[in-house]
Amino acid sequence: MKKRENTYKIVLGVVFLLGLLFLLSFIAYRIYLSRHVAVIVSEGTYSNQYKSPVLNTKNTYKSVLGKLNNNAIDKSGSFIETLPILMYHYIETPSATTTMKGLYLEPNIFENQLQTLEKNNYKTLFMSEAAKDIRTGHKLDKKNIVLTFDDGYEDFYTEAFPLLKKYNMKGTVYVIINGLDKKGYLTKAQVKEMAASGVVEIGSHTFNHPDLRILKKKDAKFEIQASKKILEQISGKPIYTFAYPFGYYKPEFFSELSEAGYEAAVTVKPGSKQSFNEIWLLTRLRPDNREGEVFINWIKRWEK
Predict the structure, then answer these.
(1) Which class is domain 82-302?
(2) Burial class (CB in 10 A: 0-12, 13-18, 19+), 215
(3) Domain segments of the chain: what residues?
């Protein structure tokens, strides 16, 4: 009987100790969580690679959680912003023999898209302006949108530029250095004129538009850095953003872009969620030939 009683006491003692350990662990976890969140909220978290603040807010933990649906936070602590970045190539009527009709947009349809954005109170940003907001954690307006144009074709100057001026909307054109002054592409004089207009920003699309993944490191570095320096000399303006040719990239390019002085890079990956943690992999959307309500409802679907 006494032996059974001792066993019962031992079991009770073990259960009590396990319960106490669980309680202490739970308390320690809650203390850690509250301190960790306090650090995020009051000081901002930092990217180990870039040492840049990605969250600056006075909000309490509760209010931060309350905003997750509209302004979520990724695993690095960086705000995820909803920002549609539209991607265009040719703004002209394609010839009957062209094999790349998907890259073309009729000028009248492009104008309709600008009219629709204006009617719905959208505000266009240069890509560098959007990048700055994403980097600093500044909350973007729900009506912000970015218009980007790849390759630097001549029709950007003859068709898109006049329409951007007409509607006072901003566009960022990504220029290939080796295309300048060649048939079908922008001239250096046009680049300089547009850069001074207030409605066009110049971005780099490399020197030769190669697949950067297959180049030697020194050659990829040349494509990234030389194109920036030359465009700055031609335009008389700083070049802040970069577009990967064909959308191809390797993570090792990120340090090269940062070293060259770029603030962000855009891909061809579809999406509208942007964050500091993905500042070298910003996503874009192809508007194609959508017009009016179809166009604006398509944008709104990406804003959800």
Answers:
(1) alpha beta
(2) middle
(3) 2-65, 82-302
